[in-house]
Amino acid sequence: MRLAVLVFLPMIFGVLSIPFGRKNPQISWLFALAAAALELGISAAGFFLSKTRFAIPGLFPGGLSLVADGFRNVYALVISGMWFFTLLFSREYFAGHGAHLQRYYFFIMMTEGAILGVFFAADLLTALVFFEIMSFTSFPWVIQEETEGAVRAAGTYLAIAVIGGLAALMGIWILDVQLGTTEIRALFRAFPSAETGGERGRLYLAGALILVGFGAKAGVFPLHIWLPKAHPVAPAPASALLSGVLTKSGVFGILVLSFGLFYGDAAWGAWMLVLGCITMLLGAVLALLSIDLKRTLACSSMSQIGFILTGIGTAGLLGAEGGLSAAGTVLHMVNHSLFKLVLFLSAGTVYMNLHELDLNRIRGFGRGKHALHAAFLLGALGIGGIPGFSGYISKTLLHEGIVEAAAEYGPAIHAAEWIFLLSGGLTLAYMTKLYICLFHEKPDEKTEHKPGPAAQPLSALSFLIPALLIPVFGLTGNFSMLGIARLSGGFFHTEMPEVLSFFSLENLKGAGISAVIGAAVYFLVVRKLLMKDGAYVNRLPKWLDLEEKVYRPLLLKLLPGVFGPVSALFGENRLTRPLAEGVFRAGSGLSLLFGENRVTAPLSCGTLRVLKVLSRALSDMTDALVYFLRKTLFRPARIADTDPVRSSVSYRIGSIADRISGDPTKKGGKRRKKPVPSDRHAKFFYRLVETVIHTTHNLSDSMSFALLMLALAITAILFYVLFVHRFG
After folding, report:
1. Strand ranges (E), 258-335
2. Which residues of 445-459 are buried (b: 16+ CB within 10 A; e: fewer)?
3. What's the start-to-end Cα distance of the chain, in Å?
4. Which of 259-268, 372-381, 688-697 is the most confident on average?
5. Contact criterion met (CB below 8 Å) for 150 and 143
6. What pLDDT was estimated at residue 713?
7. Of 584, 648, 592, nearest to 613 (Cα)?
8. With helix as H, strand as E and coil as C, how does 26-66 read?
9. Is the pLDDT of residue 102 over 50?
10. pLDDT digits (tens, 9 = 90+) for 374-389
11. Is the peptide bond before 222 cis (omega within 30 degrees of 0)?
12. pLDDT at 647 (0 to 100)
């Protein structure tokens, strides 16, 4: 029953907030805060409970199934804490610029229940249902401000969510066909038990499709494109949740595959390690080049997800001996959630005071603001992996896992180790860049920052309390952090370490190498190449933007160009109509075989005529449906019938058209000396040009229509799976 309360309580509070918060958004905030506080209390109370289950049989083919264990209880507490502190901060943050707040708080509550449903899911189908709910209920966070950038970023976020969801659904279906179940517990060691290469190939295909769906939400390369776009435009509390928690729902799916289905499979582990290294290094480079505060933190999230993937990869290579890597994976997940809560709320404090995120405009804001200074510094030291802070504990475990894998697999893993250390150094470099900019550099002469506290006491507590946990966890690693790892051991099917010498010279060596790299990059790259005349310069190459250079051209130009002519064959009935008429002619020829038979001949001809009408109706059904939609729900906006702008070109075109028509250029049988273009022809050419422009823009606008159709397709598929289809 505790699981049902955790998952559905926030959703119930969200629905109840609608009538009460309609006139006063603060009522909705109180509902959301109360729900988060109750969730936090229930999660803390059940933190040490043994495995529990909850199911609603009959809703799905296997029923809606939820299960709790040590790892899930850990992350339920993390999620509840994140929600509580971000909502505590939200009241002041939205005080000055909060429109559509009731909508925001409603979807915040719905998403909390959905993401808890993902983590508590006992099978992949239940996880996918809550995963898709979470994707659609978090979409309004990104579009909350309704600026042009927010709308575009929200479209990217929705596209990634929909395409990823479809891929994951197909992968889950393949798994069910191959294994006869999607229960997470039953996936353990299912791959090694596959008897033939064909079966293993289909399992790899299913794993790859599920990886696309969950990896897209995690921000894994090359599906990371939504992260740098969504965070700068979303409200800071939403950014903290998107980065700190929603990305972990994607990681959860990858964990199910890596520590369940493909447990101990070296090939899968190698692929995870490769993806982790690319994601880790590319995210760090993008963060280093960024001059936007929240974009830097968003790219940092991508990099830290790469760190987590390296742990997953090395654990896959080591199998049952990968306890250090598994411990580093779960602890860095927890640490990253904590770091991004502190750092994004700190960034939100800057934004709600200045309404700016550009480093050149916010520089020096934190001078004299002690609470903000302390919180940001602790977050930066933690994510940088400095000894004495929690990030050092998880990164040390991840590094030790790479060293173990290198001892077994050789030079290729040594390369991964150096990428790991280099990425750690880049992390220190870009966090030093942010810290120096905010708290030590002087603002420009034109910029004035108000003295005094940056946030009210309640808001300051929302990022100070989590920040204080960073050194506490870092100094008590063997007790607190390894305790969390041991609680999670059952989910990872491995034995977690009991005690480690975190501050031995060997372990400090890795942190020292990253620190030296970070200092060198900051002084030689940031100060020399990324700054000009004391100002931060955007050196980010445009070719690094995969969305604009690859994905949008692929989806909006290449694919329509390739498949458009094929679909036109059916849309214009160039295939179906001739086929129907051919069937009718063939049937008419057959009817002649009956000769002058006055009974069978009229009967056969009548039957064929009926079939002809039906076949024509069916062949025209597609066009009729499209025509109906274009005239009703998707009716295109009319081009305004305004007077055209009379340029020299329109004048000449109108004159030529009038001469040809011989209409207004004559008066009383005599030709005018200077023909005057008719308004009719001028408007015609004006409307023609506008139509061409409007049609061109429709190509990109159709993205929204395509996403809507995909969303409806997902809904139909899930309805079929849940209520019609029966597996096995």
Report:
1. none
2. eeeebeeeebbeeeb
3. 29
4. 372-381
5. yes
6. 55
7. 584
8. HHHHHHHHHHHHHHHHHHHHCCCCCCEEEEECCCCCCCEEE
9. yes
10. 999 999 999 998 998 9
11. yes
12. 45
